[in-house]
């Protein structure tokens, strides 16, 4: 075999016995398309210039022109044509002479990827006809003048999402003549929530403006007793973000032919958003040490994360649940899938999905951290994406849970969803994907139990209402919070709720009965405790109240344990132990205060200033135990933002960020971040230290690009203090 043929052999992509073509899963790769495609031998006198020739193609791709206006894509900071599927768009072709329909024949070709194939939807030839059928590929001439024609092109309402290359082909007797490859005519096609035939069709304009076109949102965090909120910049229209989102599908190796299906896209995206098992976008870290990366609390939006990943192709460090959910929301809205960010307060992370979280107590009534594997997250953020579910029975379309935070594996990868919210509510957890896991997150019971010396397990208390007691999202058209708990579950204790639970158990959600264990609670004494609202760095108190409804006098040996916890409910350290004996008089209530000093908690404090208190009391006369647990959060000071100068698009203005250190210590290694979509790109500034009680002022000059209501978002991050945010709505005037 000669040298030349052997090298040619090696260059062929490796074939396997099952497919003739290699996988086609990169939107970025291209094939070479011949400009002259001969039918056979071309006669000597053939001159392509004698035939109809394309001189220029005009795409109407400026933000103020018809295509981007009609397709709601005028906000994308991208010079190319961006349209939504299932809706007509316009282009103009200039020829070298007037077009003669009787004799001239031309057609359009849209191609994607390296191996375009007609049956895969990656090669789309469009013959020019007389009518456009709704939701099917087609083109018709709407205007002819001199050497130019204006075309209206309809794309299929189920076509692939991504970037297509456009060629115009002209038929001649001896060859097909094509336009040469021109990136200027590339066309992005996105999902279309405005089109009734699209799987993501949403019928309410206000909801479309919120869930597709709004580029900032709110993350609700904190805990159920003390809800906190912060803004997040999704930035789905910012420069290069659309390309970065398409790259994520290439990274996930989603076959191009599957990219018209929002179910498939959500499923692969929920895996590629986290870095576990596929080197995806964000590396999670829940251990409070973020060396060689950015603390999760410092991010103000998704743009920096996606752009860093797009350029480095390496996981960006670090994220926690709201960061995964924020970036996932950007991805979905950018591609045109309606999406919203959800917070579930008191979210169960149930390691074996048996609908119960087991907290094991030791002899003293303290939680045994060795045996207790399940945890309650103060809150957990995930996303909902809106789509039909033709793969499920009728009635399970609409909002679907998708979650990019790596918690448990699904089909061997860290991913979750899409799971129908409607199916979760009614307990129909047999329907794909991952409904049992989400059902457990919002419906588990907490069971406190203790091992007796003889090995029997004694259940001391069952709490059926703590988990998933509040599920919220941002309201449409405003920054307020709207409760959507009723979309996930029926009212606690109602007949429908029991029925949904029985359905879920029938479909294989494990629910252990408590029959194999003894459970006889003390019924004539109630115990509760309240944690005083407190600002970070101050002392506060915990008040424990007993109500003795019996005619007996009891004494209760009471134990309070204060733990500093991650928002995931995992304990870092116990900072407070306090025991006392309480005398409970018949038919009366009594309260006891325990003071928590700032010196006891400040040294170990984690970023979300989150505490978890366990109070257990043994009634000495009966040996029964009362147990209760609550999470609480300290008030964290905020950043103040103000502006100086005229707020006019195209004119310079100033943004001023101020912060006063409230702690009894100097803040070291302080980083400030500031961003505002349409006003300024993310800017970072480092300060070595801020002494106690002193105020830091930072002024940034910028030129806002877009008029309208915009939001500025700032965060402060330091060794001792995180989760410090500020925001400001600004109205940018037209010049």
Automatic annotation (TrEMBL):
<dbReference type="GO" id="GO:0005737">
    <property type="term" value="C:cytoplasm"/>
</dbReference>
<feature type="binding site">
    <location>
        <position position="497"/>
    </location>
    <ligand>
        <name>Ca(2+)</name>
    </ligand>
</feature>
<dbReference type="InterPro" id="IPR038765">
    <property type="entry name" value="Papain-like_cys_pep_sf"/>
</dbReference>
<feature type="active site">
    <location>
        <position position="380"/>
    </location>
</feature>
<keyword id="KW-0106">Calcium</keyword>
<dbReference type="InterPro" id="IPR008958">
    <property type="entry name" value="Transglutaminase_C"/>
</dbReference>
<dbReference type="InterPro" id="IPR001102">
    <property type="entry name" value="Transglutaminase_N"/>
</dbReference>
<feature type="compositionally biased region" description="Basic and acidic residues">
    <location>
        <begin position="1"/>
        <end position="13"/>
    </location>
</feature>
<dbReference type="InterPro" id="IPR050779">
    <property type="entry name" value="Transglutaminase"/>
</dbReference>
<dbReference type="InterPro" id="IPR036238">
    <property type="entry name" value="Transglutaminase_C_sf"/>
</dbReference>
<keyword id="KW-0808">Transferase</keyword>
<keyword id="KW-0094">Blood coagulation</keyword>
<feature type="binding site">
    <location>
        <position position="492"/>
    </location>
    <ligand>
        <name>Ca(2+)</name>
    </ligand>
</feature>
<feature type="binding site">
    <location>
        <position position="443"/>
    </location>
    <ligand>
        <name>Ca(2+)</name>
    </ligand>
</feature>
<feature type="active site">
    <location>
        <position position="403"/>
    </location>
</feature>
<dbReference type="GO" id="GO:0072378">
    <property type="term" value="P:blood coagulation, fibrin clot formation"/>
</dbReference>
<keyword id="KW-0012">Acyltransferase</keyword>
<dbReference type="InterPro" id="IPR002931">
    <property type="entry name" value="Transglutaminase-like"/>
</dbReference>
<dbReference type="Pfam" id="PF01841">
    <property type="entry name" value="Transglut_core"/>
</dbReference>
<feature type="region of interest" description="Disordered">
    <location>
        <begin position="1"/>
        <end position="38"/>
    </location>
</feature>
<dbReference type="GO" id="GO:0046872">
    <property type="term" value="F:metal ion binding"/>
</dbReference>
<dbReference type="InterPro" id="IPR014756">
    <property type="entry name" value="Ig_E-set"/>
</dbReference>
<comment type="similarity">
    <text>Belongs to the transglutaminase superfamily. Transglutaminase family.</text>
</comment>
<dbReference type="InterPro" id="IPR023608">
    <property type="entry name" value="Transglutaminase_animal"/>
</dbReference>
<dbReference type="InterPro" id="IPR013808">
    <property type="entry name" value="Transglutaminase_AS"/>
</dbReference>
<keyword id="KW-0964">Secreted</keyword>
<dbReference type="GO" id="GO:0005576">
    <property type="term" value="C:extracellular region"/>
</dbReference>
<dbReference type="Pfam" id="PF00868">
    <property type="entry name" value="Transglut_N"/>
</dbReference>
<keyword id="KW-0356">Hemostasis</keyword>
<feature type="active site">
    <location>
        <position position="321"/>
    </location>
</feature>
<feature type="binding site">
    <location>
        <position position="445"/>
    </location>
    <ligand>
        <name>Ca(2+)</name>
    </ligand>
</feature>
<comment type="subunit">
    <text>Tetramer of two A chains (F13A1) and two B (F13B) chains.</text>
</comment>
<keyword id="KW-0865">Zymogen</keyword>
<keyword id="KW-0479">Metal-binding</keyword>
<keyword id="KW-0963">Cytoplasm</keyword>
<dbReference type="Pfam" id="PF00927">
    <property type="entry name" value="Transglut_C"/>
</dbReference>
<dbReference type="InterPro" id="IPR036985">
    <property type="entry name" value="Transglutaminase-like_sf"/>
</dbReference>
<comment type="function">
    <text>Factor XIII is activated by thrombin and calcium ion to a transglutaminase that catalyzes the formation of gamma-glutamyl-epsilon-lysine cross-links between fibrin chains, thus stabilizing the fibrin clot. Also cross-link alpha-2-plasmin inhibitor, or fibronectin, to the alpha chains of fibrin.</text>
</comment>
<dbReference type="GO" id="GO:0003810">
    <property type="term" value="F:protein-glutamine gamma-glutamyltransferase activity"/>
</dbReference>
<dbReference type="InterPro" id="IPR013783">
    <property type="entry name" value="Ig-like_fold"/>
</dbReference>
<protein>
    <recommendedName>
        <fullName>Coagulation factor XIII A chain</fullName>
        <ecNumber>2.3.2.13</ecNumber>
    </recommendedName>
</protein>
<keyword id="KW-0007">Acetylation</keyword>
């Amino acid at each position: 075999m000669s040298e030349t043929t052997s090298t040619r052999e090696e260059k062929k992509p490796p074939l396997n016995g099952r497919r003739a073509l290699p996988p086609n899963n990169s939107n970025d790769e291209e094939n070479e398309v011949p400009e002259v495609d001969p039918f056979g031998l071309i006669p000597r006198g053939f001159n392509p210039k004698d035939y109809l020739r394309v001189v220029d193609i005009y795409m109407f791709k400026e933000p103020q022109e018809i295509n981007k206006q009609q397709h709601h894509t005028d906000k994308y900071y991208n010079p190319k044509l961006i349209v939504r599927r299932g809706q007509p768009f316009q282009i103009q072709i200039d020829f070298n002479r007037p077009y003669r329909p009787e004799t001239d024949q031309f057609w359009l070709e849209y191609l994607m990827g390296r191996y375009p194939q007609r049956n895969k939807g990656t090669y789309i030839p469009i013959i020019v006809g007389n009518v456009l059928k709704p939701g099917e590929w087609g083109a018709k001439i709407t205007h002819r003048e001199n050497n130019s024609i204006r075309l209206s092109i309809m794309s299929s309402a189920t076509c692939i999402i991504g970037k297509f290359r456009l060629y115009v082909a002209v038929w001649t007797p001896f060859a097909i003549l094509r336009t040469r490859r021109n990136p200027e005519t590339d066309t992005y096609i996105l999902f279309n929530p405005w089109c009734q035939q699209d799987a993501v069709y949403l019928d309410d304009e206000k909801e479309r403006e919120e869930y597709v076109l709004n580029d900032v949102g709110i993350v609700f965090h904190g805990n159920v007793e003390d809800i906190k909120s912060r803004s997040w910049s999704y930035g789905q229209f910012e420069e290069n973000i659309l390309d970065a989102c398409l790259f994520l599908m290439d990274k996930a190796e989603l076959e191009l032919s599957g990219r018209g299906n929002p179910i498939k896209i959500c499923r692969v995206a929920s895996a590629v958003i986290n870095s576990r098992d596929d080197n995806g976008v964000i590396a999670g870290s829940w251990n409070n040490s973020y060396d060689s990366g950015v603390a999760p609390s410092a991010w103000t939006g998704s743009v920096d994360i996606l752009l860093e990943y797009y350029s480095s192709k390496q996981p960006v460090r670090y994220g926690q649940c709201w960061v995964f959910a924020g970036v996932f929301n950007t991805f979905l809205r950018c591609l045109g899938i309606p999406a919203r960010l959800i917070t579930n307060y008191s979210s169960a992370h149930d390691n074996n999905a048996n609908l119960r979280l087991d907290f094991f107590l030791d002899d003293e009534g303290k939680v045994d951290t060795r045996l207790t594997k399940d945890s309650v997250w103060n809150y957990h953020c995930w996303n909902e994406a809106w789509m039909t579910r033709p793969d499920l029975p009728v009635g399970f379309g609409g909002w679907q849970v998708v979650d990019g935070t790596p918690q448990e594996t699904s089909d061997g990868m860290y991913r979750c969803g899409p799971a129908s919210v409607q199916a979760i509510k009614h307990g129909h957890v047999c329907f794909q994907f991952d409904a049992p896991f989400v059902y457990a997150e919002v419906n588990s019971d907490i069971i406190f139990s203790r091992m007796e010396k003889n090995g029997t397990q004694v259940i001391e208390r069952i709490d059926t209402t703590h988990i998933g007691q509040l599920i919220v999202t941002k309201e449409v058209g405003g920054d307020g919070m709207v409760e959507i708990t009723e979309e996930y579950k029926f009212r606690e204790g109602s007949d429908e709720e029991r029925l949904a639970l029985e359905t879920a158990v029938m479909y294989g959600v494990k629910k252990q009965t408590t029959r194999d264990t003894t459970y006889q609670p003390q019924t004539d004494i109630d115990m509760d405790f309240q944690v005083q609202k407190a600002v970070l760095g101050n002392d506060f108190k915990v008040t424990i109240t007993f109500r003795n409804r019996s005619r007996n006098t009891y004494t209760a040996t009471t134990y309070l344990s204060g733990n500093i916890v991650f928002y995931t409910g995992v304990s870092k350290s116990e900072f407070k132990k306090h025991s006392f004996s309480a005398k409970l008089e018949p038919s009366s209530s009594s309260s006891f205060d325990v003071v928590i000093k700032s010196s006891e908690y400040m040294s170990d404090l984690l970023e979300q200033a989150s505490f978890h208190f366990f109070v257990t009391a043994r009634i000495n006369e009966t040996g029964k135990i009362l147990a209760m647990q609550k999470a609480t959060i300290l008030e964290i000071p905020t950043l103040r933002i103000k502006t100086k100068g005229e707020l006019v698009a195209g004119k310079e203005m100033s943004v001023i960020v101020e912060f006063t250190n409230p702690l009894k210590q100097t803040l070291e290694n302080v980083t400030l971040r500031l961003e505002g979509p349409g006003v300024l790109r993310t800017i970072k500034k480092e300060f070595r230290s801020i002494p106690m009680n002193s105020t830091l002022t930072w002024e940034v000059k910028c030129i806002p690009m877009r008029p309208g209501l915009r939001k500025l978002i700032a965060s402060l991050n330091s060794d001792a203090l995180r989760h410090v945010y500020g925001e400001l709505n600004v109205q940018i005037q037209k010049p």
